[in-house]
Amino acid sequence: MPHPDLTLTPAGPALAPRFRDVPRTRPAGPYRRLFALPGTRAFTAGNLVARLPMGMFGVADVMMISAAYDSYALAGSVTATGLAVGSVTAPLIARLVDRYGQARVAVPATLYAVLGHVLMALWVHERTPVWALFATAALTATAPNTGGMSRARWAHLLKGDPAALHTANSFEQAVDELCFMLGPVLAAVLCAALFPEAGTLAAAALFLTGVLLFAAQRSTEPPVAARTAAGSPLRVPGMGPLLAVFLATGAVFGSMEVVTLAFVDGPVAGPVLALQAAGSCAAGLLYGRARRSARLRTCLAAMAVLMTLPLLAASTGSLPALAGGLLIAGMATAPTMVTGMGLVQRLTPPAQLNEGMTLAVTALLAGIAAGSATGGFAADHAPFAAFGYLVPAAAAALALLLTAGLRTATLTGTTMRD
């Protein structure tokens, strides 16, 4: 049967439309469908600019402080102070975002944080007493959770469409990995090529610009929900055990970074470590095209297995083998984080979504700090070269064991549909 658009006219085939002239349509991919929604490209672009500095500040501050005071211990202590204070302030700021709106809270919170980073660069340049650095690090902890706000917008726009929300969460995780892959490299280049404070100042400028662009996109901002008498999302059944899983998962990331830097010990360490983020970024984009999300337990089981690859590769003493092991091991990261964040979204009441996701990020950051300290200790006291890689492997196994504390209902991924 001829195609209706190719039916011959009474005048003959010469007047019939040619096949190549007939518009052919094909189903849009899941990511193309996401960004066909009005306003999504604009808020995503702004959020990307705002999120890139999250991968820059740590490296930039360490390089800046260590160059001025000749002490990596001081640099690590100052950055750890900001992280510790942020674990307290971040959920509070997220609660204000839920209550008063993203633009109304994120902009002033960002201004305070940027002021703190600028003052930090000034104090370091002037070699002020170290107590001023610790006090200023606390001021930088007012930075809002830009990734959480972006995920909250997707949850609002894609309400009732779990398949599209799964794709959006996968995209957001890929963006996280991209920022933590490019941010440290950019910060290191700026500090080395220009002056020690350049990385921190550039990150502060990008952060402020990105948040202003993001906040200006009011059409996609979730509406402020009516106030309820509900307490903290910590009281939601299943949230506590899930945050414990995030804590252990963060220890995987923190220990892997420090152990790899110590094992490689040279300028190649950064690019080698970036391969883990590259593997996660690629896996996140592929996972977003999946028709179904996996169980969190399944993702963590895969991570526990794959985290043994860097240990085995390092035991051979081959740097290319280690690079390949990190690339493959990283592929378990994004699916695990996407599935875990999806569970947080399901457990958290809609009116407290920013706070719930920020609690998850806070648990993750606390795990990263603990993993960094443990990995550093293992690297310094290793009886053999690859010993440190036992820490991320053990942390991944612990995260898997902790899923036993979750209810069966929270472990099942949502079935996806076209």
UniProtKB/TrEMBL annotation:
Protein's UniProt name: MFS transporter
Lineage of the species this protein comes from: Bacteria, Bacillati, Actinomycetota, Actinomycetes, Kitasatosporales
Keyword Transmembrane: yes
Biological source species: Streptomyces gulbargensis
Source domain of life: Bacteria
Keyword terms: Membrane, Transmembrane, Transmembrane helix
Transmembrane segments: 72-93, 105-124, 201-217, 238-256, 268-287, 299-316, 322-344, 356-378, 384-406
InterPro entries: MFS_trans_sf
UniProt keyword DNA-binding present: no
SUPFAM superfamilies on file: MFS general substrate transporter
